[in-house]
Amino acid sequence: MSKSERPNQLFRNLNAKIASIPMILTALVVFVGGTVWTVFYSFTNSKLLPRLHFIGLDQYHRLWSTPRWLVSIENLLIYGVLSLVFSLVIGFLLAALLDQKIRFEDTFRTIFLYPFALSFIVTGLVWQWLLNPEFGVQGVVRSLGWESFSFDPLYNSSIVIYGILIAALWQGTGLIMCLMLAGLRGIDEDIWKAARVDGIPTWKTYLFIIIPMMRPVFITTLVIIASNIVRVYDLVVAQTSGGPGIASEVPAKYVYDYMFFAQNLGQGFAASTMMLLSVVIVIVPWAYLEFGGKKRV
Amino acid sequence: MSDQTVSLPAGVDTIGLEAYGPSGPKPRHTFSRRNIFLYGTLIVVALYYLLPLYVMVVTSLKGMPEIRLGNIFSPPLEITFEPWVKAWSTACTGLNCDGLSRGFWNSVRITIPSVILSIAIASVNGYALANWRFKGADTFFIILIVGAFIPYQVMIYPIVIILREIGLYGSLKGLVIVHSIFGMPILTLLFRNYFSSMPEELFRAARVDGAGFWGIYFRIMLPMSLPIFVVAIILQVTGIWNDFLFGVVYTRPDTYPMTVQLNNIVNSVQGVKEYNVNMAATILTGLVPLVVYFVSGKLFVRGIAAGAVKG
């Protein structure tokens, strides 16, 4: 390219460039700039307002010696692993059930998916009511005569995270089912015909032929579930507010509380940086598999 | 094959798996063993999914004395709409006692401009990326998509500072901007993919006829892409209406959206808990996305499927 063409290059496609300004600003200022800013300030001792007094890794030392953070991480791990496993299993089973050429498929799908339209706040409040020990499921079973029946996850600090898991699965499995169903529908009918001709039992066909073929769907689903797990916040706020005590705290809530209530910005930044790190750990291998694979093709 | 199905013991947890594949012949007997398992399971699961909705509605129609006596699953003996009226117009959050109506109108005033602005920006972005690719455009797009996976918590505070600098922190306008920013990755992806799938000749023909960037967008692309706009609207209306985090961070108590106000009403520690009012308030908050969901049907599924393929 000769030098005389340069200005031409800049003004070529000018409208497209102007139209892309919001995208460019969002990408550079908010996503890159905001992230770098937060990571940068996590090494300072900012309290009420951000200030540039560097204290190295002190915030991280404090973070990892704060019981509330440790409880948050433990909860996130339990919640994460269980919601991943159950979402995938329930989502796939429901999709497989709906894929049997049944009648009223649309009705069933509508019913399984409607909780997904509701917010986590609504979900959390409904399940808070259902799991109310006095009037909810426990109270009803007791009034039927089983006096010693005990099911009060929201008031029992050792199982409270499972109470949240129940609500989360109710809200989210419909989406996974839809994705899985789309995956199942994308599989060639001939595969089924061939499997049947060979006399392979249906469950074996699913397990050894269909599921391996649905690998891309599973990976997409996995990434979606994983990035939603790290973000879990509203549900906990609505259902338990982190209680009883600190038993159902999660990292996202830790960040919010330290930034906006405890006026300890540095801690909030350090905690959010740790959240970012956990997402990077999930996303990078996936991106490598997806996009690294493309290069080979 | 049918032997295989019949010989399996009853009650195995592979109910869905033992049945025929999707291309299997339609079974002749309506009450075959397979069908009883299949529909039985589906109906039980469907009841489980519907149960919370039922309990919400039933609770909201009872009086408090009845709630204290009865069980949450029993239908109301005496139907009362008082809890609904109270939830809408007199329930208290802090000092304000004008009910959820305030939050509802705040949410309306947040959702409508946010949906319009975010879709306007994203559709033009997607169009530029699909048809007017300039040098470096794809780099920004990749940053945008990767950014969609960054936890919001990382970017919350820098945005507080930006909004404070431009004087919009705590206002509805500020929240509208935040929603437009965070809606951008997925919507841009949606529109880019849609516009890319349109025939290239169309675009070229318009170029030959002398139409420019905006001319092609408004006269050709826009009229031809109504379905994708509907999908985007569904996605955004439910997403923004259901948002809690941004609402609680970027607005003040008198501009709180409905979800935040609902949470404050239900989880307030003062006063006697009125479960019927709480449930009425909860239904009211969930009503808008539920109506969108039931009206839009298959388009909603398309919207979330599109939202799902973020990566």
Task: Explain what the structure shows.
The complex is a heterodimer of chains A (297) and B (311). Chain A folds into 2 domains: 1-41; 58-296, MetI-like fold (Orthogonal Bundle). Chain A has 15 helices and no strands. Helix content of chain A is 72%, strand content 0%. In chain A, helix 5 (67-98) runs antiparallel to helix 12. With 297 residues, chain A is an all-alpha fold. By secondary structure, chain B is mostly helical. Chain B has 2 domains: 2-80, no CATH class; 101-308, MetI-like fold, CATH 1.10.3720.10. Helix content of chain B is 70%, strand content 0%. Chains A and B meet through helix 2, helix 3, helix 5, helix 6 and helix 7 of A and helix 2, helix 3, helix 6, helix 7 and helix 8 of B.
Compute the number of strand runs of chain B: 0
Average pLDDT rating of chain A? 87
- Count of helices of chain B? 16
Q: How many discrete structural domains of chain B? A: 2
Class by SSE composition of chain B: mainly alpha
Summarize the topology.
The complex is a heterodimer of chains A (297) and B (311).
Chain A: H1 6-11, H2 14-19, H3 21-41, H4 58-64, H5 67-98, H6 105-117, H7 120-130, H8 137-143, H9 160-185, H10 189-197, H11 202-213, H12 215-231, H13 234-239, H14 251-260, H15 265-296
Helix pairs in contact in A: 3-15, 4-15, 5-9, 5-12, 6-9, 7-9, 12-15, 14-15
Chain B: H1 2-7, H2 15-18, H3 33-60, H4 64-69, H5 82-89, H6 101-131, H7 137-147, H8 152-165, H9 172-196, H10 200-208, H11 213-224, H12 226-242, H13 245-250, H14 258-266, H15 275-296, H16 298-308
